[in-house]
Amino acid sequence: MMMSLGVVDREFHVFRGLPDADGEHIGEVKSFTVPVQPGWVVLDALLYLQAHNAPDLAIRWNCKAAKCGSCAAEINGLPSLMCKTRLDHMPLDKPVLVRPMRTFPLIKDLVTDVSWNYEINKRITPFTPYNDDQSTWRYFQEDADRVQEFRKCIECFLCQNSCHVIRHHRKFNHFAGPRFLVRLASLEMHPLDVADRIPFIKEEAGIGLCNITKCCTERCPEDIRITDNAIIPLKERVVDRYYDPITMLLHKIGIK
Amino acid sequence: MLEAFLSKNLVTQGFGKTDRKDAWWWEQVFTVVALTVFGLYGVYRAFENGFYEVGPYLSPFYSPNLKALFPQAFDWFQLSPAFLILWAPLGFRGTCYFYRRTYYRAIFNDPPACAVDKPKQGLLRPLADYTGETLFPFILQNFHRYFLYVALVLVAFHWVHAFQSIFWDGQIGFGVGSLIVWLDTILLTLYVFSCHSLRHLIGGKLNTFTGGIFSRIAYFKWFNQTKLNQEHWLYAWVSLFTVGLCDLYIRLVANGTITDWNTWGLDWSGVGCLH
Ligand code: SF4
Ligand code: SF4
Ligand code: FES
Questions:
Q1: Residue B28 and residue B5: Cα distance in Å, rounded?
Q2: What ipTM was reported for this prediction?
Q3: Which residues 127-156 on chain A approach chain B with CB closer than 8 angstroms?
Q4: What are the backbone dihedrals phi and psi of residue A90, each rounded to the nearest 5 degrees, phi first?
Q5: Nearest to A243 among B20, B143, B230 (CB)
Q6: Which atom of ligand 1 lies closest to the CA of A211?
Q7: Mutation pick for ligand 1 pocket among A117, A153, A163, A168 (CB with most ligand atoms within 8 Å)
Q8: CB atoms B1 and A190 under 8 Å
């Protein structure tokens, strides 16, 4: 037989706690044993815990299909979706450690306050088409393909959580984070959009703080190539406008 | 969100602290070792000022040799001719998006690996604040495209040398050295042509590929270069290795340590120049 199809008891180490007055995570890791069924993901085990051992365990989830983006956490130290992390991919004999996203203030147990992200989002100039008559909008499939990748984003904020600029340096007031650089790229590269967000990208979104170390890309559950396809192209556009004397001159005299 | 939470500056439990259970540190170790070995070898070779040319082969560290090409113009330059050229590949690699990712992680610990804590302020982290690429010197990374322009010229020279490596005394042929020179030239070409700045310049900067023939051509270039660009990291590493290998091979033939097997049937082992 290739693998056991039966129920296996597995150990889970789950963070339980509440924030202090500043929102810092205060609490401890509690140990539980869960009878794990074949094919289970981490979220299944936590829902079992909620039903049997810890009815007051706080977890946020909705779709259990890696589409709503609510169940982001840190599993064995890696920022991951609880509903997309299979238990049979982890060593059987080691406990599975689940903690809340460390970058955001704690609400309770595994639930964090991600509202900062929504505030950043409001500051981005929305889609601004060159005219409002949708019947005239035409563009090639190739143009759609490029921005389509960015529309896969489920706003789980795992990239924000993984980004050292926010995680370790808490540049919440100076940096928009990878998720919103993705959104800015999807708008800036949109064939019908005419708004100019380059000054915003440089100054307020703080793209210069990103040092392209790619943790966002590594942890994105939607496999969006955040750094290569969104951030670096935007950095190059900022160079065109603010650093490269040749393109700056061309821009001044009206040649793009 | 809570103001107090936002205002902390460096949040870390100390260098390398993490809940990760995988071998996150191997890439850091590999990078530090690889860059140190290559760096020390490169500095030694640049100062050595010899054994860089033998038979039809010229070391990539000395290519092009401006002192040999324009002896009068560079008469004043008394140091090794490697220094006339090495700033260019060094600048290109140093500002390359892939190398930046790699050395910010491995050398500056910004961050050591994803979800791994940074050093506390101290010896390993002199400045408490983090400014990314917004201030000197890292703001200079924005000029990567200018190093790209120089690198494109150097690639052209490498191809000239690659063709020279299969001619000797007016006769076509090849040796193990030619194979190594060609391998290096091909990988350097792939590395330079997969550059992120190039991807922007040849088409990525457009918002639409819809309008007319020029946008279609731009799309074709951008779309195909993107395939190369996805492997940029690989070409960056492998070409670093082949440059070192190519120089080492030429050095060893030139100083007589090994013999180059070639179709000309000549043995130029040990006849390399030591100026
Ligand atoms: S590539 Fe930039 S945005 Fe992404 S995690 Fe690294 S620093 Fe943050
Ligand atoms: S870009 Fe990826 S990691 Fe970031 S919020 Fe969107 S889906 Fe999540
Ligand atoms: S529950 Fe919706 S993404 Fe995990």
A1: 30
A2: 0.94
A3: 138-140, 142-143
A4: -115, 150
A5: B143
A6: 7
A7: A163
A8: no
| Ligand 1, atom nearest to B114 Cα | 5
**Contacts with B36 (C-beta within 8 Å, 6 or more apart), sequence order:** none
Structure-model confidence comparison of residues B274 and A234, the more confident one: A234
**Distances from the Cα of A10 to the Cαs of A45, A143, B142, B229, in angstroms?**
9, 48, 50, 43
Dist. CA B117–CA B106, nearest whole Å = 13
The tokens describing B136, both together, are: 């000197």
Q: Are A83 and A63 in contact (CB under 8 A)?
A: yes
What does the pLDDT look like over A24-77, one tens digit per residue? 999 999 999 999 999 999 999 999 999 999 999 999 999 999 999 999 999 999
- Give the Å distance between the CA of A230 and the centre of ligand 2: 12
Domains of chain A in start order, with CATH, are 8-111 (3.10.20.30), 115-252 (1.10.1060.10)
CB within 8 Å: B207 and A191: yes
Pocket of ligand 3 (CB under 6 A): A 61-64, 66-71, 81, 83
Residue A29 and residue A15 in contact, taking contact as beta carbons nearer than 8 Å: yes
Instruction: Please report, for chain B, the start and end positions of each structural domain, with discontinuous segments joined by +.
Output: 24-194+231-254
